[in-house]
Amino acid sequence: MFTFSVPYCGAVVPSDNAFDLTVSFSAAGWLQLYHFGAAQALVDCGLLDKMSQDGKRVRFCGSSAGSLVAVCLASGLHDFIEARDSTIMYGEHYASSWLFFFCMINYLKDAIKHQWTHLMDLERKPDLQSMINNGSLEIYVTVLPYMKKKVIDRFMCYEDVVEAALASCCMAPFVGFPFRLSSTGEFVCDGGLAVVTPRIGEPNTISVSPFCWSSATVHPEQFVPVWWVVRPPGGANSIKLFALGYNNMLEALEKNGLITSEMREKLSKPKSDTLFSSSKLVRFLNCRPVCALLSHLHIYMAPIGCVKLAIDVALGQTKRVLLFCNQTFTDLRRNCKKMSLTNLCGSGLSRVSHISEHVEQSLCIFRVFRPILYGWKNTETRPVVTRTENNSRTKRAR
């Protein structure tokens, strides 16, 4: 759900940073075909054109593969049919031999070279340069070694845009390896390690994710094979994945009053009854009882909690030994007790749930691997907090 709901022809309430609408795209890998469909629906429904005519400001954010869609939308490149067809072609070549398993960087560079020609000589195009440098484009990368997020929103030339996109998509070792930014010298890699879905849950934000367990505004209601992140779907499934993203975006826009039901019915693509059903495993995972069971198995967090605490113990004790801290062995005994699997399992699922919250808050890389290890959906609604409410809360705290 959006954090706002307005009529299609009405005014969108501006957020604190003066953007009337933010559209964010998550990390996706080869599932970016879902993003292409969602972005094409956003273009076809006329929402972006109408907001531009009304003087509304729109911001596009992206992490990893989502950054490619954000760049296209922010720079006015709205032909995602061509992007889909190119991706299908690259995917077929990639899947033809295991020798191409670590060559995705070549496909990415080739796609950028042939599809982003309008961004070349950006410094000689003041209108386009101003359009993407007014805060309307945000590319998320991860700064190493501390796994901190970095938002790149200034692009003085074509090379700056390409470098930011390559950094955000640098899912080592599949899509190149970490490198240093030419502007700051920071060592960076895939943005999905720090932020999977940018600005998710913020006011006036449409967030898009291809994962069915996501709490993003636009996401599939059925199971989409997770292994398609690194192993592209076949040509037929690629078309279906594009159509799924297209229809899901239209449904979300209609649900929140941004387009009419007549427009959704007019633009919607035919739904396939055999969507992703060729695999027995996928059909099994799409069964409602199985989905419900997987979404509530918090016990999967027990081994993750053990691993995370083990890392804490190893790093913490090494630091304390080097600093000759007197509490070293006391803390070691307490941490080992916390790590005990018997202690974890004996405390019940509520105990494991607390550990999962602790891991999610303190371990950035966990945000990427959480959907693969367990699949419950976060159904909590995020209240919209205005700046005035934040100030009042701060005063009460003081």
TrEMBL record:
InterPro entries: Acyl_Trfase/lysoPLipase (IPR016035), PLPL (IPR033562), PNPLA_dom (IPR002641). GO terms for molecular function: triacylglycerol lipase activity. A motif (GXSXG) lies at residues 62-66. Residues 23-203 form the PNPLA domain. The active site is at S64, D190. A motif (DGA/G) lies at residues 190-192. GO terms for cellular component: cytoplasm; lipid droplet; membrane. GO terms for biological process: lipid homeostasis; triglyceride catabolic process. Signal peptide: none annotated. Pfam families: Patatin. Keywords: Hydrolase, Lipid degradation, Lipid metabolism. PANTHER family: CALCIUM-INDEPENDENT PHOSPHOLIPASE A2 IPLA2 -RELATED (PTHR12406), PNPLA DOMAIN-CONTAINING PROTEIN (PTHR12406:SF42). This is PNPLA domain-containing protein.
